[in-house]
C-alpha cells in the first residue's frame, strides 16, 4: 500500500540529486510482482525523458525519483493508488496493479542551470586567457553525465581548432572556454539547452543530454595578434643590431605554445643561417630577428598567420602558435668589409706592411660570439706569410695591411672575405664572421710587385756569360740556380722573402726558357725591363 524504494547502487560521488522541477533522463524496466515485464526503455533504445514533480509521471515515480544521483540504481515498488489505480491501462496495466520499476538515472538538469566550470589544473604562469574572437586549439574528451564517452579529440590524434564566442561552437562551450590559460585543464558541464537541445546532434548525442567536456587548452591567439618578443639576455655591449638584408647565424629551440618541441638547431649541432627581411623565413621570424645583437637571446612568439598558417608543416599542426627561443651567434651584411680596430701602435711607426712583405705574427682566432677557433700562442710559433700572395683568406690580407712591428689590432672578417658559405669542415662553420686578435712581430720588406729577384747594385753587362759558367752558350737550371744562390749569399741580389728558394729559381728559369727545352740561350735571355708587355716574374 505504500511506496517502496530500494537503493541498489549509489555512486561514491553524488554532486547533485534530483529535486522537483528537474529534468531527468533515465532507463527503466517495468514489471509486475510476478516478474512479468510490461515495459522497458532499453527495448526502445532510448531513455525516458521527463520533468520531475510536474505531474508528467505517475505519482509514485514522481516521488521515487527525488533524491536520486546520476548513475544511481533504484528498485521501486509503487502501489496502485500512486500508479494507475483501479482503472489501469487497458491492454497493458490491469486495474489495481502493483508496479515494480528498476530505474537507472542517466542525466539530470534544471532549466535554471548554467554552464559549470571546474578547473583542476592551472599553470603558474598565465600571461593570457581566452577572450571572445580568440582562436584556440584544444583536446577534449566528451562524455554524458553518466560518464559514457561520445567523442574524443585524443582518439583522432588531432586538436579541435576553432574561434571562441562567435557562434562556431555550441553556446555552452563558447562560455566554458572563456578565461582559460594555455596548459589549463578544466571540466565544462553544459545543460542541453546550451548544447544540442531537444533533438541532439542526430548522431551520438541524444536529445536533452547534458554534456561534460574534459578540456586541455594547447594554443591561443587572435587574428589581430602580431609577434611578441621577450628579451631573455641582451649583451651589455651591443655595437650593432641586425637590419633588413643582414645574414644571421643563430641557434633555436622551436616549441608549440604548450611546450611541445617540434624542432631544434642544437640537435643538429648546426646554426640556422639565413638572410633577414628578405622572405627566406616565415614572416614572424623575419620580423623577430630584426634589431638583435650578437650573443643576444630572445623568445619570439609567432601567431599562425605569421607562421605556417592553417595547414602547418611537418610536426607543426595547422593554426599553431610557434615559440622560438633563439641565440644569435653572429650576423653580417654582404656589403660589409673588413673591420680593423687598433689597440696598440708603437710611437716609432715608420715602416708599414705592404703587399709582398714577409710577415711573422701571432693571432687568436675566434667566432663573433667568442668561441675560440685557433691560436698561434698555443702552438708556440708565429704564423708566417707573404702579404697579398693568397696564402691567407682575402680578409686577412686586407687586415694585415699598413701594420707596424709591435702593433696589436683586432680584425673582423665577414664570411665573403673569409671562408665563405662552406667554412672549413670541423674547424670553421659556414658563413661565419671571424675575429682575429693580431700582434705583428717581424716584417721583412718584399720586392716590387711582379719581381721575385732584384739586384742590389748595377747589373753586369755580361750577365749571361757570367751565368754560363762552361761557356757553351746554354744555361741549364743547375747553373742558373747556383748563380742566383751566389748573388744572394754575397749580398749582390735579393729574393722575394717568404718563398721557397728552389720554387722561385725554377719559376725564374722557366720564364727565361721560352721554347721550353730546358735550356736558356743568349737569344732567349732578357732582363725584366727589357720585356715589353710581359707579366712573368723574371730577372
From TrEMBL:
Residues 21-109, 133-221, 245-332, 356-444 form the PPIase FKBP-type domain. It is found in: Endoplasmic reticulum. One of its GO terms (cellular component) is endoplasmic reticulum. It catalyses: [protein]-peptidylproline (omega=180) = [protein]-peptidylproline (omega=0). PROSITE patterns: EF_HAND_1, EF_HAND_2, FKBP_PPIASE. Its EC number is 5.2.1.8. Residues 455-490, 500-535 form the EF-hand domain. Its main location: endoplasmic reticulum. Pfam families: FKBP_C. SUPFAM superfamilies: EF-hand, FKBP-like. InterPro entries: EF-hand-dom_pair, EF_Hand_1_Ca_BS, EF_hand_dom, FKBP-like_isomerase, PPIase_dom_sf, PPIase_FKBP_dom. Residues 512-539 are annotated as: Disordered. Keywords: Calcium, Endoplasmic reticulum, Glycoprotein, Isomerase, Metal-binding, Repeat, Rotamase, Signal. One of its GO terms (molecular function) is peptidyl-prolyl cis-trans isomerase activity. PPIases accelerate the folding of proteins during protein synthesis. This is peptidylprolyl isomerase. The gene is Fkbp9.
Amino acid at each position: 500500500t505504500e511506496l517502496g524504494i530500494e537503493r541498489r547502487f549509489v555512486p561514491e560521488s553524488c554532486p547533485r540529486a534530483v529535486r522537483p522541477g528537474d529534468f531527468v533522463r533515465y532507463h527503466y524496466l517495468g514489471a509486475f510482482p510476478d516478474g512479468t515485464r510490461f515495459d522497458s526503455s532499453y527495448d526502445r533504445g532510448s531513455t525516458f525523458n521527463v520533468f520531475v514533480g510536474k505531474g508528467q509521471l505517475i505519482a509514485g515515480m514522481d516521488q521515487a525519483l527525488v533524491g536520486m544521483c546520476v548513475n544511481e540504481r533504484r528498485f521501486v515498488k509503487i502501489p496502485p493508488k500512486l500508479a494507475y489505480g483501479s482503472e489501469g491501462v487497458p491492454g497493458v496495466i490491469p486495474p489495481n496493479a502493483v508496479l515494480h520499476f528498476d530505474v537507472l538515472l542517466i542525466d539530470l538538469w534544471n532549466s535554471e542551470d548554467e554552464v559549470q566550470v571546474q578547473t583542476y589544473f592551472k599553470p603558474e604562469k598565465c600571461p593570457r586567457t581566452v577572450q571572445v574572437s580568440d582562436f584556440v586549439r584544444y583536446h577534449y574528451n566528451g562524455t554524458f553525465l553518466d560518464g559514457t564517452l561520445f567523442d574524443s579529440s585524443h582518439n583522432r590524434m588531432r586538436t579541435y581548432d576553432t574561434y571562441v564566442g562567435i557562434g562556431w561552437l555550441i553556446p555552452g562551450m563558447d562560455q566554458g572556454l572563456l578565461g582559460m590559460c594555455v596548459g589549463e585543464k578544466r571540466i565544462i558541464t553544459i545543460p542541453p539547452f546550451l548544447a544540442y537541445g531537444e533533438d541532439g546532434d542526430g548522431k551520438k548525442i541524444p536529445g536533452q543530454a547534458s554534456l561534460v567536456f574534459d578540456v586541455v587548452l594547447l594554443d591561443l591567439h587572435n587574428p589581430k595578434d602580431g609577434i611578441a618578443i621577450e628579451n631573455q639576455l641582451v649583451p651589455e655591449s651591443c655595437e650593432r643590431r641586425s637590419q633588413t638584408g643582414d645574414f644571421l647565424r643563430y641557434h633555436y629551440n622551436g616549441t608549440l605554445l604548450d611546450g611541445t618541441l617540434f624542432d631544434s638547431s642544437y640537435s643538429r649541432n648546426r646554426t640556422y643561417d639565413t638572410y633577414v627581411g628578405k622572405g627566406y623565413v616565415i614572416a614572424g621570424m623575419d620580423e623577430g630577428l630584426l634589431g638583435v645583437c650578437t650573443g643576444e637571446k630572445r623568445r619570439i612568439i609567432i601567431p599562425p598567420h605569421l607562421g605556417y598558417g592553417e595547414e602547418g608543416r611537418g610536426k607543426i599542426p595547422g593554426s599553431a602558435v610557434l615559440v622560438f627561443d633563439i641565440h644569435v651567434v653572429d650576423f653580417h651584411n654582404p656589403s660589409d668589409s673588413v673591420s680593423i680596430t687598433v689597440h696598440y701602435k708603437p710611437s716609432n711607426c715608420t715602416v708599414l706592411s705592404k703587399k709582398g712583405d714577409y710577415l711573422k705574427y701571432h693571432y687568436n682566432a675566434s667566432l663573433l660570439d667568442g668561441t675560440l677557433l685557433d691560436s698561434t700562442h698555443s702552438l708556440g710559433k708565429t704564423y708566417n706569410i707573404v702579404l697579398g700572395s693568397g696564402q691567407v683568406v682575402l680578409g686577412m690580407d686586407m687586415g694585415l695591411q699598413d701594420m707596424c712591428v709591435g702593433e696589436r689590432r683586432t680584425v673582423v672578417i665577414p664570411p665573403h672575405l673569409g671562408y665563405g658559405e662552406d667554412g672549413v669542415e670541423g674547424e670553421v662553420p659556414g658563413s661565419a664572421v671571424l675575429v682575429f686578435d693580431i700582434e705583428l712581430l717581424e716584417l721583412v720588406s718584399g720586392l716590387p710587385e711582379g719581381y721575385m729577384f732584384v739586384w742590389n747594385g748595377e747589373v753586369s753587362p755580361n750577365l749571361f756569360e757570367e751565368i754560363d759558367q762552361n761557356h757553351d752558350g746554354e744555361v741549364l737550371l743547375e747553373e742558373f740556380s747556383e748563380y742566383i744562390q751566389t748573388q744572394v749569399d754575397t749580398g749582390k741580389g735579393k729574393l722575394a722573402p717568404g718563398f721557397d728558394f728552389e720554387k722561385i729559381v725554377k719559376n725564374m728559369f722557366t720564364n727565361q726558357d721560352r721554347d721550353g727545352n730546358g735550356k736558356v740561350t743568349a737569344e732567349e735571355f732578357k732582363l725584366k725591363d727589357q720585356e715589353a708587355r710581359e707579366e712573368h716574374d723574371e730577372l
